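Quick one: 3-hydroxyacyl-CoA dehydrogenase from Rhodovulum kholense, structure tokens please.
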Amino acid sequence: MDVKTVGVVGAGQMGNGIAHVFALAGYEVKLNDISAEALDRALGTIGKNLDRQVSREKITEAEKQAAMDRISTTTVLTDLGSSDLIIEAATERETVKTAIFEDLQPHLKPTTILTSNTSSISITRLASRTDRPEKFMGFHFMNPVPVMQLVELIRGIATDEETYHSLLKVVESLGKTAASAEDFPAFIVNRILMPMINEAVYTLYEGVGSVRSIDESMKLGANHPMGPLELADFIGLDTCLAIMNVLHEGLADTKYRPCPLLTKYVEAGWLGRKTHRGFYDYRGETPVPTR
Ligand SMILES: NC(=O)c1ccc[n+]([C@@H]2O[C@H](COP(=O)([O-])OP(=O)(O)OC[C@H]3O[C@@H](n4cnc5c(N)ncnc54)[C@H](O)[C@@H]3O)[C@@H](O)[C@H]2O)c1
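--- reply ---
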């Protein structure tokens, strides 16, 4: 299956990044959201991020313009019907995702590949609710999409080889690298990363180290570019907690028990950078540890 046109559903943080990288790689992109404001915001963000690439001389002004011209937006989901590939990047709620695929299905070509960017919902279960489980895959981009090199490709139990190979080719054409993961909770990256972050929160909770000493230790002692608590603030503490809960419930092993201190930060609404407070307070000039 030769993919030329891509329909992206959901124009949030991930959807705008996905539209950005596909348009830059030469695909015609239709971006859909239920909110017209989200679509306007997404186009603004894509423009700003492309400008940054121009100023860093990664792309030319003409390439930026051509990429912008390849993106069209719509609040009508069925406008995406003619796409060769659908990438669903809407809100992380199973009923939302299932409804999107159900509404789209009657308008699609039989060859269209369906994918979801979900971080935690079973690909096999989502696929089983569509008319083409063999042409359904998890297509898990990392945040921020234009910057991160990796894409996880997750096969559901029914996904066929042709679909997998088509998506491998697509990932290559984006200049990114694919890792294949089986369809188990949190796939590969989050399965390994989140328990590490959770353990850092336990280390803080038990008083083994302060926010600063934990982050410094992992930066200077393990050569991580960011400390685990700083990274948790960047990802969003609510997202970290949600993924730990998916691991805990999905694998039924107490080693994935979310740290009570992580729960407490989320209860306080201290979700990290997006709310200006988490393990660090971002309201001043420089981030100040909150513990
Ligand atoms: N944020 C991350 O770091 C990250 C990383 C990898 C994967 N993901 C996954 O990507 C998906 C999107 O996450 P996000 O962070 O971009 O969320 P977000 O909240 O920034 O954006 C979601 C968008 O979906 C739209 N939406 C909701 N229902 C819709 C519908 N029925 N049709 C069309 N649009 C609809 C919302 O209006 C919103 O603009 C989720 O499945 C999430 O698990 C997120």
